[in-house]
Amino acid sequence: MIIRLADCPPQPWKNGLGSTREIAIHPDGAGNDDFLWRVSIAEVDSAAPFSSFPGIDRQIALLDGNGFTMTLDDDRMHALTTPFEPFAFAGEAKVAVTLVDGPTRDFNLMVRRTQARGEVQVWQGPDTRMPDPSTVLVYCARGVIDTTEGPLHAGDAWRPAPASPLRLHHNALALVIRIEPNAS
């Protein structure tokens, strides 16, 4: 299934201090308290703190803009200034943000840590790939990616069916989400 960013309306952050576009959530129709995993694109246009998500492992990657510096739990700093480079942190961490120079957009993966592990992989073109069974979403961050259901352009995402290859054109870049359940 192809998901177009234009079909994902902005909604307020959990803390109401910013906005995000939910790309996909599992299970379908879940909310903040019962999702297994969630992928979204956040608009960061002020130094507002991130929402708290206890029990959630998060990964974030800069998509557009000059980025920001994250201060985690008042003592650890991370500069999110390199596009498409995932950074992992705990959802319950207290996160303050200082913008580098203007607004940014970032890619977010959230996974309920007691139930699963998530990973954001970066694939670059030109290349042809076969997503493995743990791949739940392919996000086109740059360029064009051909799928069995049609092309993806920057901002589009795809929920691949099993054994569905994709082709990344020259200069294409995909953020690929893999989710694996925790061992019982």
From TrEMBL:
Protein name stated in the entry: HutD family protein
Q: List the source organism.
A: Rhodanobacter panaciterrae
